[in-house]
Write a structure and sequence with these properties.
Elements: H1 3-9, H2 24-35, E1 46-51, H3 54-60, E2 84-91, H4 101-115, E3 119-123, H5 128-135, E4 141-150, E5 156-160, E6 169-170, E7 176-180, H6 183-186
Parallel strand pairs: 5-7
Antiparallel strand pairs: 1-2, 2-4, 3-4, 6-7
Helix pairs in contact: 2-4
The chain binds flavin mononucleotide.
């Protein structure tokens, strides 16, 4: 897949075939993509918690918050929940701040997941204290981002932003629409 098609296919997916597991080996391959990615001052202070066992996934899911603009939807139901998570942690023994490293790592992981036929969603809205308790995550680590993953069970399309409205929405056929601003709106000339 060329880079444009890979990026196009790499949408945020929030409903999955929960029974389609992702084995640990594949998740380790995805973490390797993050390992090879850019890191501010090359500190490489991120750590990655791999979760794919169904009972462990059940411990992560309650700490995730989904699709704030879809106010009538509480997130994926049982059967449509992610079948794996990679939780990105910041190791405070290596650095006090993590800059944009976790965003870069997350994008590498999701592009890799897309190439493997999976999909996912970055989750920044996290019940952090609950997650720390439920997974027994040491205070040495900041909880930066969760990447929820699985075999996508929804269609996502890109629209143009109209009248400045950037909120994503779902139509009657349950297709998820993501408005993107035009290049003309993004590029500023000198
Ligand atoms: C840093 C970051 C945090 C995000 N956190 C959440 C989240 O907590 N819950 C969620 O449902 N989506 C979350 N998203 C997904 C965005 O809503 C999504 O990227 C946006 O709607 C555009 O859709 P697209 O990824 O398909 O282009 C997050 C995305 C980013 C980059």
């Amino acid at each position: 897949m060329d880079i444009e098609n890979l990026v196009l296919k790499n949408r945020s997916y929030r409903r999955f075939y929960q029974d389609e597991r992702i084995d640990r080996e594949q998740l380790v391959e995805l973490v390797n993509l993050a390992r090879l990615s850019a890191s501010g001052s090359n500190k490489q202070a991120l750590k990655f918690l791999i979760v794919n066992d169904p009972s462990d996934c059940d411990k992560v899911f309650p700490s995730t918050l989904w699709a704030g603009y879809l106010t009538n939807w509480d997130g994926p139901e049982k059967g449509e929940q992610p079948s794996a998570y990679i939780i990105i942690l910041g190791d405070k023994e290596i650095s006090k701040s993590f800059g944009v490293d976790h965003g870069i790592a997350a994008q590498s992981i999701l592009l890799g997941a897309t190439e493997k036929g999976y999909g996912g969603c970055m989750i920044g809205s996290i019940r952090r204290e609950k997650l720390r308790e439920d997974l027994n995550i040491s205070s040495r680590f900041d909880i930066l981002l969760i990447i929820a993953m699985g075999k996508p069970r929804e269609k996502v399309v890109i629209d143009e932003v109209k009248d400045g409205d950037i909120e994503y929405w779902r139509d009657d056929e349950d297709i998820h629409h993501v408005p993107k601003r035009s290049l003309d709106d993004l590029i500023i000339d000198l």
